[in-house]
Automatic annotation (TrEMBL):
GO terms for molecular function: protein-membrane adaptor activity. This is Autophagy-related protein 16 domain-containing protein. InterPro entries: ATG16, Autophagy-rel_prot_16_dom. Keywords: Coiled coil. Residues 11-200 form the Autophagy-related protein domain. CDD domains: Atg16_CCD. One of its GO terms (biological process) is autophagosome assembly.
Length: 275
């Protein structure tokens, strides 16, 4: 888990301060040791000088080998003091070595943790790279799919434009056909009207001729009926011949007078298939 930013900044600043403070630590340690050695030497010299003074005062030479020789005693004391200081220094070195070993173990543990974190980061980085590669492939596939869809849309647009053009042509053709049909229907109605007028005129002419013939026949019958062997004229409402033509003409005339035109069967009796 990552530390907060302010803690990381504080740690970095403390580490920088420690590095600055410990930059001259070896030199300071050497000067400390030198000062300690100098102090020991000064004490040893002072002891030797006191021993020499004592020997001079007692009349003994410095080279006497007696056990009570103060020079030798001072020298032995100085050596013991030096040995003691060296032992203390050795103890300090052992202590420092132990601290360094402890620090080394701690640093090894930290290094192991950092290596584990680095391994985890490397694994995450590898997974991230794999995911990036997969996403890039998906992006490429999506781009290809979009390009294919764009081509399909363009084809559909072209087909729609063609269909609209064909539809406009069909509508225009339908309008032309509708106009032609209207013209043909009007011509057919005009032809039927002219034929009906012609039939009505023929019927009217036939009626006039029939009335004229009936009047002439009645006048002739009246003149012949003035004799002793006169014959009554036949009823005009009955047919005068066996063929029934007079009855048919009378029925046609009555239908014409009543409706103003012939029935559809009579009107279209002599029409051609094309009107």
């Amino acid at each position: 888990m990552a530390e907060p930013s302010w803690q990381e900044l504080l740690r970095l600043r403390l580490a920088e301060r420690n590095n600055k403070d410990s930059a001259f630590a070896p030199i300071i340690e050497q000067y400390r040791r030198l000062a300690q050695q100098t102090k020991l030497l000064k004490e040893r010299n002072a002891t030797l000088l006191r021993a020499v003074g004592t020997v001079k005062g007692s009349g003994n030479t410095p080279g006497s080998t007696g056990e009570d020789n103060p020079v030798r005693a001072a020298y032995v004391a100085s050596l013991e003091t030096q040995i003691s200081s060296l032992r203390d220094e050795l103890a300090n070195l052992y202590k420092t070595q132990g601290q360094n070993a402890q620090r080394l173990l701690s640093m090894n543990e930290t290094l192991r943790e950092k290596e584990e974190i680095s391994r985890i980061d490397s694994e995450n980085l590898r997974k991230a790279k794999d995911e990036i590669a997969v996403l890039r492939r998906k992006v490429d596939q999506h781009a290809e799919l979009m390009a294919e869809k764009d081509r399909t849309v363009q084809i559909l647009h072209d087909e729609i434009s063609t269909s609209l053009l064909e539809l406009s042509q069909v509508e225009e053709r339908n309008q032309i056909l509708a106009k032609d049909n209207a013209k043909l229907l009007q011509r057919w109605l005009d032809a039927k009207q002219a034929e009906a007028n012609r039939v009505n005129e023929e019927n009217e002419y036939y009626e006039n001729m029939r009335n004229t013939n009936v009047l002439a026949w009645r006048e002739g019958s009246a003149q012949e009926g003035s004799g002793p062997n006169s014959v009554h004229p036949p009823d005009s409402s009955r047919p005068t011949s066996g063929s029934g033509k007079d009855l048919d003409h009378q029925t046609t005339h009555s239908a014409t007078k009543k409706n103003g035109s012939l029935p559809p069967i009579v009107q279209g009796a002599d029409l051609t298939p094309n009107g």
